[in-house]
Write a structure and sequence with these properties.
151 residues; mainly alpha; Recoverin, domain 1; two-stranded antiparallel ribbon; 2 strands
Length: 151
């Protein structure tokens, strides 16, 4: 029996992987469309831009291409963002966001978390991920200064 072409456990890459990624993007875009048409979210500022950013972030951290962020994907995501958590903390975060009891975070749950009013630690970490980063240091020769430009 042959595996279907869009099997998320088939990690061979190439054309099949490209087709899988296109299919996943279409599915996530369909969910984005549901949120765009939902009156609950119509008053959110820059909704279109936020949905695009959230889709990219979700695709970046769905490491096993299953369509959900599982425990290990969440662990790696938070480590990459410089906010590593213990096993217990990760379980709590998943439980906070997971509304279906699947033990994973689906894209729909991810959007509910990011766009909803409920505060949870994952939302805060993702929202403030750039706050803790140091600004890039300027490289090269310093620009010429005048007495007027001094503080």
């Amino acid at each position: 029996m042959e595996k279907p072409i869009l099997d998320p456990t088939d990690h061979q890459g190439g054309k099949a992987f490209g087709m899988l990624m296109e299919e996943r993007e279409k599915i996530l875009e369909g969910i984005n469309e549901e949120f765009r048409n939902d009156d609950t979210y119509k008053d959110i500022e820059d909704l279109e831009e936020k949905l695009t950013q959230y889709k990219e972030k979700f695709l970046e951290f769905d490491l096993d291409t299953s369509g959900d962020i599982n425990f290990m994907s969440l662990k790696r995501m938070l480590e990459k963002l410089g906010s590593a958590k213990t096993h217990k903390e990760l379980l709590k975060i998943v439980a906070e966001v997971d509304t279906t009891g699947s033990g994973t975070i689906s894209y729909r749950e991810f959007l509910w978390m990011m766009l909803g009013g409920k505060k949870c630690i994952l939302r805060l970490i993702l929202f403030f991920e750039s706050v803790g980063q140091e600004p890039q240091k300027q490289k090269g020769v310093a620009p010429p200064r005048t007495l007027d430009s001094l503080p």
